[in-house]
Amino acid sequence: MTTSTEQPIATNYNNASVAHFGAPETWGGVTAVLSQTGNEYQGKIWLKDILGLTGTELSLSSLPAGASVPFDHTHTQNEELYIFLSGEGQMKLDGEIIDVAAGSVVRVDPAAVRCWRNTGTTDLVHIVIQSKAGSLEQWTAVDGTMLEEPPVWQ
Ligand code: ZN
User: Fold this and answer.
1) 36: pLDDT confidence band, cut at 50, 70 and 90?
2) In angstroms, what is the span from residue 3 Cα to ligand 1's centroid?
């Protein structure tokens, strides 16, 4: 996928969907369409429609050196989790500016006014997860069920 500029189509299985987008440093070259508006974006790949997600929206994102998201925004009901994979940047959260870099994770309440920018010399590669604030009822060891039989790889 390193040379593609089109988002891949998912392969659907019985209880799963799979799509391959290549290494994170190539995400900046992928162009994707946001189905809700029909607008095309470079370096921003929303996965809800591609994978059929039902509890979260998630985007794979890459912001080029020197760029800022060109608008502040809030959300109505979704909190967001920003996971920064590489590069250096800043987030503005209700006017407070924080530095972010590879390994930074930032949770943002729906009402917070947010923006982010790349302050480094390489792409700022990150993942943004949206989920309904307050919706998580069980997780990890409580939600997961370990089966008794060991895994078999055929
Ligand atoms: Zn958002």
Assistant:
1) confident
2) 28
8-34 burial: b if 16+ Cβ within 10 Å, else e: eebeeeeeeeeeebeebebbbbbebee
How far does the centroid of ligand 1 lie from the alpha carbon of residue 57, in Å? 10
Cα of 71 to ligand 1 centre, how many Å? 11
Of the chain, the percentage scoring pLDDT greater than 70 comes to 95
Cβ neighbors of 112 (< 8 A, separation 6 or more) are 74, 93, 94
- If you measure from the C-alpha of residue 90 to the centroid of ligand 1, how many angstroms do you get, rounded to a whole number? 15
- How many Å lie between the centroid of ligand 1 and the Cα of residue 80? 6
pLDDT of 75-104, one tens digit each? 999 999 999 999 999 999 999 999 999 999
pLDDT surpassing 90 at residue 138: yes
The per-residue pLDDT for 7 is 62
Q: How far is CA 65 from the centre of its chain?
A: 18
Q: Which helix (H) or strand (E) holds 107?
A: strand 105-108
Task: Count the Cβ atoms, other than its own, within 10 Å of residue 120.
Answer: 16
Say if residues 133 and 74 touch (Cβ distance below 8 Å).
no
